[in-house]
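TL;DR need structure tokens for one chain.
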Amino acid sequence: MIFSRNSRVLIRPISKSSTFSQKKSYRGNWNLRGEEKIQNLLIQMNIAANSKIKLEILKGKPAAFRAKTYGRYVPERKDDFAWENDKIAHRMYGKGLEQFPAEMAYGMDVWVKRTDKLILNDRYKRGNYHQDIGDGMDYYHVGYTLGSGDIAPYVNDSVFYPKNYRRWKILDNGPLRTTFILSYDEWNVNGRNVNVTKRISIDAGSQLSRVEAMFSSDQKSAFPVVIGIAKRENPGVMLLDEQQGFMGYWEPQFGQDGTTGVGSLLLTPATKIKITNGQLLMQTTAGNDLPVIYYTGAAWNKANEITSSKTWFDYLQSFKNRLLNPIKIVLE
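>> reply
TL;DR here they are.
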């Protein structure tokens, strides 16, 4: 989905007998995905700010459309769940990885790309995805961190990591959006039993994925959580903005593999951003049945679109501005 600040879209059925229903936003509603019937109309377009465009819904045979997003469970690689669009790719680690302590990792991984083609299946098939053969690679290191924007409870200056995800469900899978749910087993957080379910989606053309983390607990009181970005030993460039609720990190160059930019944007208020124990941590509050909604993602300089800390931080700022000033849709 492409947002445009202060723009207006008019959607017009082709006749009075045509019907068009607009569902409420799926934010906070977990029942508008994974159904057989179409639930949403997705349109990808560029619209200038303060402009207006009219669209018509026409009856006819749908045209072929190349998929620009994709995600799947990867049982052949220790229960990974991986997803991508035409810009970037990610994965979360599953239960199978816990059987290999030397490889164990917790947070969100990044697979950088320099092609608009979908590459996950090809990379898993060839096995060696740590080498760039022209479409990108996996050189991002997660380890015992939240990686490129995972979320976890944070109490007494400690991140309380769950075990890796246990259950998955795909709700949408292209061509313009992929949405899935990852569920985790209950774990102890400083004497409190906590559960979390994450609904993650990625749209075509976006460097960032949307995360909706639903925490629940055996105690009614709210508790702090953090979104984390792994910090490297060598100097990089950081932008930490508590007031606007986003953080950006332009990593130090990793040899011949290039440079990765990582960033996260909160829609709920950020209470604190700090650097501690090898991570950038942006803190907010979670409560029972109140989701924490944020966007997180990455960019690679070798994709030749975002090639510096300035362009990456400008992208994050522009993305946040578009979230705060969404397109207005009028139905006729």
